[in-house]
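Private note to self, pasted from the team thread so I don't lose it. Backbone tokens:
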């Protein structure tokens, strides 16, 4: 597991030799590493994640091998399929280079609500459709 931002911040503040802390290599986990960590923690095999998030098999395995980085909607589908918390979802979005969920954007607010309510991917899609907002299956891959 990697160190949190808060831990690294306190190391910098508490260190007499800031350069020593800065010279330590702190590699952030990749998107594929993070997804694999979530899968392991949940005890879900990759094939079940691919099916639950409704991702093509080849694309899902490319993500897991680190050959592809998923787009925002795939990350959100993954978060809903794996029942990630909002904090975990925001972290996965950041690692993937996607914009964070922003509650002032109605679609994002609906996804935040779905995550906090533990909704399934289908339930979240129905919520978005009822608003009406663009669904999680109509964007980029």
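Design output:
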């Amino acid at each position: 597991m990697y160190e949190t931002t808060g831990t690294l911040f306190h190391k910098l503040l508490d260190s007499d030799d800031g350069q020593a802390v800065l010279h330590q290599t702190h590699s952030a986990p990749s998107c594929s590493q993070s997804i694999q960590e979530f899968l392991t923690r949940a005890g879900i095999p990759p094939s079940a994640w691919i099916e639950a998030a409704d991702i093509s098999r080849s694309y899902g395995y490319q993500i897991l091998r680190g050959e592809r980085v998923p787009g925002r909607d795939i990350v959100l589908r993954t978060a809903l399929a794996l029942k990630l918390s909002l904090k975990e979802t925001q972290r996965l979005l950041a690692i993937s280079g996607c914009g964070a969920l922003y509650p002032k954007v109605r679609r994002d607010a609906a996804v935040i609500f779905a995550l906090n309510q533990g909704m399934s991917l289908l339930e979240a899609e129905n919520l978005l459709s009822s608003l009406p907002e663009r669904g999680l299956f109509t964007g980029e891959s």
